[in-house]
């Protein structure tokens, strides 16, 4: 093996070996790829892929993003709904990953969020402390879906030390 060349064994594509010369000595550096958690049962059928190195498996996560609801009293500016309202919201899991790419020498991010796809406006009457009544419009979630989103961050910050006083 020549200096500064990298070799990958066919039997273990998750380890790269690089020959380096340090102070006149030839040293083999071993670099292991850490793959993100992979559970085939969470995958949409037929979407399983392996990265360019043949090391890490990934897939499109089955979207479990759905409309849920909860009974709640709406309160706005001191006025409250007389009865509880059935508020709907999106809840679930969408595919997101953060994986090191040796080819790009950086972290590759894929993010999706469980968000409302269609909504409608509903009206509810609120009673105020002074005895008046006001109409209030609120948003009702009709359907939800997984939508691509920007992955915020990208670097891990170090914990900050707090000063003692």
UniProtKB/TrEMBL annotation:
GO cellular component, one term: extracellular matrix
Short name of any one Pfam family annotated for the protein: Cys_knot
SMART domains to which the protein is assigned, alphabetical: CT
Subcellular location field: Secreted
InterPro entries named among the record's database cross-references: Cys_knot_C (IPR006207), Cystine-knot_cytokine (IPR029034), Glyco_hormone_CN (IPR006208), Mucin_vWF_Thrombospondin_sf (IPR050780)
Record's keyword terms, sorted: Disulfide bond, Secreted
Spans through the membrane: none
Disulfide bonds: 79-128, 90-144, 94-146
Domain CTCK residues, every copy: 56-152
Protein name per its UniProtKB record: CTCK domain-containing protein
Species per Swiss-Prot/TrEMBL record: Dicentrarchus labrax (European seabass)
